[in-house]
């Protein structure tokens, strides 16, 4: 009897000691019954591993959702501009090509998509990265940090698609107006827009020079 009382006293003291050492720890008591030892009390800390896994899964799900949005918009935007380039290269003189290139719908759609991605990627540190120098000018290191996010990269890609398509349309329309070959320049605008513009300027200069020489010879 004395032995049982001592054991009970030791158990109570160990529980009270653990409680005094971890005052901020909340303990949940579960009364479980088994055939081997009768009923027993099991202690579980409030910050159990299940809660930690739950928080991690929420963060992971949020990251996956953001990554999926960025990937989907990247694919949709890239696919959306390809038909316009195809028409300008394959059928530059067709009426459907002229009507499609006169339309402002693709620029409005891509512009709205860009604004949506810009809203999702905007953080309080965005302006800090954009104007990181003491003269409030962009620096390469700050821009690199800003574009470390997939969402920011996707928005920048949509921005480039809009600018490239607009420049390609300008090259295409100028070629139709002045009867200049623009297929190679339009193709370059898809991936290397500045190079495509330079190509069109050079092509236009060579075409005009050739035309003027032909006219002089005819005279």
Automatic annotation (TrEMBL):
InterPro entries: ABA4-like
Membrane-spanning intervals of the chain: 69-92, 104-122
Keywords (A to Z) from UniProt: Membrane, Transmembrane, Transmembrane helix
Keyword Transmembrane: yes
Database matches in Pfam families: ABA4-like
Protein name (Swiss-Prot/TrEMBL): Neoxanthin synthase
Organism name: Brassica campestris
């Amino acid at each position: 009897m004395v032995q049982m009382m001592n054991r009970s006293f030791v158990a109570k003291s160990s529980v009270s000691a653990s409680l005094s050492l971890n005052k901020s720890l909340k303990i949940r008591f579960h009364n479980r019954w088994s055939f081997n030892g009768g009923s027993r009390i099991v202690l579980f800390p409030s910050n159990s591993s299940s809660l930690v896994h739950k928080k991690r899964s929420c963060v992971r799900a949020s990251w996956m959702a953001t990554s999926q949005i960025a990937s989907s918009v990247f694919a949709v935007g890239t696919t959306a501009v390809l038909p316009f380039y195809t028409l300008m290269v394959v059928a530059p003189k067709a009426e459907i090509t002229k009507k499609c290139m006169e339309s402002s719908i693709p620029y409005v759609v891509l512009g709205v998509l860009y604004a949506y991605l810009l809203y999702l990627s905007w953080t309080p540190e965005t302006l800090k990265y954009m104007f990181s120098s003491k003269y409030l000018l962009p620096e390469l290191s700050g821009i690199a940090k800003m574009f470390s996010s997939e969402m920011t990269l996707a928005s920048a890609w949509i921005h480039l698609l809009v600018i490239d398509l607009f420049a390609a349309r300008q090259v295409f329309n100028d070629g139709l107006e002045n009867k200049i070959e623009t297929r190679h320049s339009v193709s370059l605008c898809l991936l290397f827009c500045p190079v495509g513009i330079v190509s069109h300027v050079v092509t236009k200069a060579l075409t005009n020079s050739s035309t003027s020489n032909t006219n002089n010879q005819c005279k």
